[in-house]
Amino acid sequence: MGAIIPFGLISTIWPVAVWLMLATVLFVLALAVADYRFLIDAFNAIRFKRTLPNSAGRGASCNVGLELINIIQRRLSGSLRDLPPEGVTPETWQYDILLEPNGAIQENYSCIIPERGVHHWGLTHLRLKGFLGFLEGQMALGEPQSVKVYPESAVPDGEYQVFTQIEYDLKKSSSTRRRGEGMDFETIDRFVEGDDPRHIDWFSTARSGEFMVRRYQQDQHREVVILLDCGRLMGAQTSAGNKLDRAVDAALLLFRIAGHRGDSCSFGVYDNQVRSFLLPQRGIGAYKRVLENVYDVECSFIESDFSVMFSKLQQKQRKRSLVVIISDVVDSNTSGRMKRALAELKKQHMVVFAAMRTPALSNYANQVVDSTRGVMRQAVAMQLEQEREKALHQISKLGVTVLDTEPEGLTVPLLNQYIRIREQGLL
Predict the structure, then answer these.
(1) Assign residue 17 a region: left if phi > 0, alpha if psi is -120 to 50, beta otherwise?
(2) What are the transmembrane regions (predicted)?
(3) Superfamily holding 220-423
(4) What is the rounded average pLDDT of the residues 13-29?
(5) What is the mean pLDDT of the chain?
(6) Per DSSP, what are the bridge partners of residue 223?
(7) Cα torsion for 412, 418, 423, 426, to the nearest 10°?
(8) Distance (Å, whole) CA 280 – CA 378
(9) Do the domains 220-423 and 44-150 match in fold?
């Protein structure tokens, strides 16, 4: 209403002003329509392509390529905005563009994906300015795409992660053959000092007139069972990801090394139920199947129950095997069913229990406190650590090999333990 009164006064004094103002409005409207038509033609003339890798590593760079092609005889300017999945760094990517007539631009950016699983990219948004500058328009380009994010240990075939702390040469140990105790008969040979008299072959001795003994070589084709706990205790955060992330890395690398040495491997995932269980298999194809089965496993945040996995093992794993369990315990009371299952499991199999500590618990127990609340929190943390140590001690008394490590330090002792068991012919 405030604008109508001055307009009425001006039109009374100078009637021509009404037509001038109306002409101005129509002129601006015509320019806006021209800009609008230009933007419609411009968006129809844009060709867009986004290039994503099929897979990427957790915490590694994921390179994204964007390509724009302009097929009209007009210069286009504006901005291009891509929105990576939630949790990815950087959260958004935007670039100011200037497309020459019949020109093209290619832009690339890198992002870090901190979690395993399938991550989805939505549409890319292009914003253009009209050639007269009256209007701007925005359009969604491309199609939704996805990238599989694998654990760090999922390296290409033929490559292996190097750990300088490993006490054994992983590439040479598989070719080592040791005479003596083993499972596979190798040959009959003359008895020499140091041979086990129990291995004397009396039939061959009678024929040759001298003592002959049976010699054995290590069985080069054993069975390894890797069991991965994905219950609530595995959801504790570490310096990079949670405990389950570290467990998946170590388990996959162990599976790969064991398969490289000709061992058959089973792989199971459980919480309060069996999430998945792959029967014994070996070879490159086996590793790929396990990788696809486990790369996107998530922590369920419910209490795990190992007895359900133990029941599955009783049904599926008859042959004596090396059973590696990657999990954790809280105290001796809550781990009661696990201890009973491990005791039964130890009667038939070689069992290694890899327990992953909770970093936050250790930090609270060892920090310097200066308040009543801090003292109480430290006391609770120290009590929980003592209960955990007690539970692990009770498990070790069953004859189970216990590895108590920080999540970041699990891989090296786990691989060393596997190689040690294999070298010593304990299966």
Answers:
(1) alpha
(2) 16-40
(3) von Willebrand factor, type A domain (3.40.50.410)
(4) 71
(5) 84
(6) 264
(7) 150
(8) 45
(9) no
Domain boundaries, the chain: 44-150, 186-216, 220-423
**Are 401 and 417 spatial neighbours (Cβ–Cβ below 8 Å)?**
yes
List 195's β-bridge partners, or say none.
Answer: none
- Map tokens 């920080």 to a residue: 406
User: Quick check: 177 pLDDT over 60?
Assistant: no
Reported confidence tier of residue 13, pLDDT bands at 50, 70, 90: low
Q: How many CB atoms lie within 10 A of CB 48?
A: 17
- The encoded tokens of residue 385 equal 């650590």
Tokens found for residue 394: 């009770």
Give the model's pLDDT for residue 174. Answer: 42
Maximum CA extent, the chain: 141
Q: What is the pLDDT of residues 213-230, one digit of tens each?
A: 887 655 567 899 999 999
Indicate the helix (H) or strand (E) that contains 382: helix 372-397
Closest CA to 247 of 413, 402, 410: 410
Q: To 10 degrees, the CA torsion angle through 359, 168, 319, 201?
A: -150
Query: Which band of pLDDT confidence, cut at 50, 70 and 90, is reported for residue 259?
Result: confident
pLDDT number for residue 349:
93
Handedness of CA 193, 198, 204, 205 (dihedral sign): positive
> Cα–Cα distance between 347 and 401 in angstroms, integer?
13
Whether CATH 2.60.40.10 fits 44-150: yes
- SS3 state of residue 397: helix
Q: What is the distance between the alpha carbons of residues 355 and 346, in angstroms, rounded to a whole number?
A: 17
Angle at 299 between CA 297 and CA 301, to 5 degrees: 150
Gap between the Cα atoms of 147 and 150, Å rounded: 9
What SS3 class is residue 147?
strand
Q: Each residue of 371-410: pLDDT tens digit? A: 888 788 888 888 888 999 999 999 999 999 999 999 999 9
pTM score: 0.76
**DSSP assignment, residue 260?**
H
CA pair distance 251, 246, nearest whole angstrom: 9
402 DSSP β-pair partners: 353
Listed in sequence order, the residues at least 6 apart from 188 whose beta carbon sits closer than 8 Å to its beta carbon are 201, 204, 212, 213, 214, 215
Distance between CA 371 and CA 377 in Å, rounded? 10
Instruction: Identify which has the larger pLDDT, 336 or 328.
Output: 328
